[in-house]
Amino acid sequence: MTAATHWRTATTPTGPITGIGGTAAVVAASKTARSAYLGSLDSLRRTAQREVYAELLKAAHTYEATTGAVLESVGILLDGLLSKQEGLPRRHSSSERSAFRRAISSAADPEPVAAAARQVELEGPSRVAAAARNVRATAQQLSTTLNSIEDTDESLRPATPADLPREHFELLKSAISTFAETARKHLNHR
Which of 55, 105, 126, 154 has the fewest CB atoms within 10 Å, counting from its CB? Predict the structure, then answer.
């Protein structure tokens, strides 16, 4: 090989340097495609999360509104039970008390909240799922309290302190607020 031929071989554009550049281009294109694919998946996942979070908030706010609407009836029943125990006349008739009990029983169904919370638990992440479990637990706690008033034997002292339904209602409101804040932080975090 002559010196002139050797010089042409070393500077040929199809030498090893071109192969390295081609490999880098393929790797870069692969990373770009992967990033676009994962970005689409992340967008779909966040959309699904947003939808189940919204469903839980809708169910929880509906439950809050319906239980809040019967808190006065709860107080009336508890006052009536205390009046009877103390030998005082009741201010409401038997049919009115029955209507109060029906309204309380109807309002105290936490199942829509529980079902929506289970969906949030599936979508996650764990801190949002924990907040959803708390909403479900406080809704169940309020339901138990309200139904214990309905099921109270009127010849006995009320098993539920008069302020307990309101306390459990406030706990529910707090749990809903905490869930909303936790979900918002998650959805806005990148």
Answer: 126
Q: How deeply is 172 buried, as exposed, middle or buried, from its count of CB atoms within 10 A (0-12, 13-18, 19+)?
A: buried
Task: Give the model's confidence band at 22: pLDDT under 50 very low, under 70 low, under 90 confident, else very high.
Answer: low
At residue 110, the 3 state secondary structure works out as: coil
Among 169, 125, 123, 121, residue whose Cα is nearest residue 144? 169
What is the tally of helices (H) and strands (E) in the chain? 7, 0
Nearest by Cα to 134 from 168, 163, 104, 159: 168
Banded model confidence at residue 75, pLDDT cuts 50, 70, 90: confident
Question: What SS3 state is found at 41?
Answer: helix
Judge if the upstream peptide bond of residue 89 is cis by omega within 30 degrees of 0.
no
CA distance 116 to 133: 10
> Tokens for 118?
């289970």
Report the alpha-carbon distance of residue 50 to residue 186 in Å, rounded.
10
pLDDT band at 9 (very low <50, low <70, confident <90, very high): very low
| pLDDT score recorded for residue 89 | 77
Query: In angstroms, rounded to a whole number, what is the distance separating the alpha carbons of residues 190 and 171?
Result: 31
Whether 51 contacts 116, CB under 8 Å: no
Asked, as a colleague might, if the bond just before 112 is cis with ω within 30 of 0, I would say no
Residue length, the chain? 190
